[in-house]
């Protein structure tokens, strides 16, 4: 019975991985710059697990909450030295205001290894499109300020660069960490 159960679980995992690959989420490369101005490609993160969030520094509440949750999940996973490396990434959806310096200032309030990525409007749009992230810049107010509406999802990418899972606002840091750990265990 245990053998059959194990076989069934393996088949389910394989089927889910095939379905995720068919979605084509996160496939293809992107080229952005980190907060030190170093060009970064998706290929630079091969060999490590990645938790990726798209947001912007002028976000009043959602992005800070999600980055706090992501940071907490990474801290929980780092407690186990047997787990493979995990790189948290933040990609701006507002490159007009979020240059490398703005990202560096903003991200220092979160996990110390959280890496910020930015680029031209076209580069950011292409990276977001690879993950099918919705992005829409709202109208400017009298001061020229605006809000950017975007998908609120954290993506998990495995060491092969394959999208494994995504997490919405309803997930807690503990749930996120448990899910990431389960993906790592079955990789």
UniProtKB/TrEMBL annotation:
Question: Where does the UniProt annotation locate this protein?
Answer: Mitochondrion inner membrane
- Which residue ranges does the record assign to the Thioredoxin domain? 21-185
Q: Which positions form S-S bridges?
A: 59-63
- Pfam families registered for this protein in UniProt: SCO1-SenC (PF02630)
**GO MF annotation list:** metal ion binding
Main subcellular localisation:
mitochondrion
Task: Please name the GO terms of the biological process aspect recorded for this protein, alphabetically.
Answer: mitochondrial respiratory chain complex IV assembly
What's any one GO cellular component for it? mitochondrial inner membrane
* Residues that coordinate or bind Cu cation: 59, 63, 150
CDD domains per the UniProt record, alphabetical: SCO (cd02968)
Q: How does it sit in the membrane?
A: Single-pass membrane protein
Name the coiled-coil region(s).
none
Q: Which family does it belong to?
A: Belongs to the SCO1/2 family.
Please give the name of this protein: SCO2 protein
